[in-house]
Description:
By secondary structure, the chain is α/β, with parallel strands linked by helices. It is built from 17 helices and 17 strands.
Amino acid sequence: MSDVVVVGSGPNGLAAAVTLARAGLSVTVLEGQSTVGGGVRTLPLVSDRVAEAEGLLRDVCAAVPAAAPTSPFFAEFDLAARGVELIVPEISYAQPLDDGRAGLAYRDLARTAERLGVDGQRWRRLLGPLAAHPHEVAAIALSDKRSVPAGNPLQLARAGAAFGASTALMGGSWGDGYWRTEEARSLIAGVSAHTISALPSLAAAGTASYLGALAHGPSGWPLVRGGIGAITRALVADLEAHGGQVITDHPVRTPSDLPPARVHLLNTHARVAADLLAEPYRSRLSALPLGGGVCKLDYVLSGPVPWADPEVRRAGTVHVGGTVAQMRAAENEVVAGRHADRPMVLVSDPAQFDDSRLGASGLRPVWAYAHVPNGSTRDVRPAVDAQLERFAPGFRDLVVDCVVTPASAMSEHNAAYPGGDIAGGLISMWRMVARPGPAIDPYAVAPGVYLCSQSAPPGPGVHGMAGLHAARRVLRQEFGIRTLPSLAPRT
Length: 491
């Protein structure tokens, strides 16, 4: 019998497993799919028109791990020392507009401000203090929302004050008057839309503050050479080096699917985890509302996306939604359970920065998420094609094929995404704290059972911190170990 069984091999589950194995515990990770990684996997991209021999790869879920470089877990784990190469685009994200203009968030704050013209100084005032303290901002954003983050108290206080001020300003329509240009407004709204929630809101503004700080930090919003699955391989290698194991093709749908262990950690959506528990614990987890859904589109193109503004090609992430008013209308339609005629779409063209992502004949994968109502069965490719053609004339002429995964089918690839909810539950200011519900300890969800997924603080992202927070509590409360093990690579 293992000391610990972890259900789900996404980054949070593996972060917990690595931490516990390094503390000397026997750890088994169960994965329902045939491949490890959950939302952090890179697999062959094959379709009726694209043969496996082309050698294309697709990132199954996450593609741009913006949170990883400043995550306290990954900072100590040290991905670079383990052979994981992060590629940092000069432009973290872009927001194309209808008349060929675009808002561009360069990693260089000064260059961003210069491009924004009359809004440049305002951008500096709002995001400059955050960008000056990316690690402190990350420590606050990725905390367990129950304790003071580790770090220099003065620097944390400065970062916290800047975080609060920017969130308050951007959290309502009153913030619109702060800006003079559509480029600046749309840059903020595009980042806010990562929450797949009503806009504007304090939760969306907090997300924009956090991700905005990272965008102008030393690591920007990076891509991973060869695909994001390299992060998973590094985590699994460390786990196995410390005696842990991962068992694939082992779905856990009922309590009878769980092997005995002193402790079980569940790295899955709270709604899915609820099915493994008895009352009253089941009802407590089931109470977490589902978030919006995504329809995943894996395009295969014969050339780079032909953005109307050529500078957009240099952005690792592109937010396709148009103006602030158009993005708000689209996101609010999704929240109301309706499909937007012009959906919000996130796009990344990794081959623009990583030649290894090009196929044998020069074809390239383009990753896209479209925001849709949870559980949507609709293939929204026609609407997404139209959005991309709108800002990249000639896009349709380059499309060789597209593999579409509707929101309703996302859980077939990752059980933690019911209805296409990739955020682990509704994103609101309350639910970022009371996640999965109001509790002093949000991780201990039943005797001997801990939640370590995006449904627990700090919420969504490739950061591993829900796993680390849960593992810390398991070590202390179940095994009497009060000191976390080192996560640094062996020398």
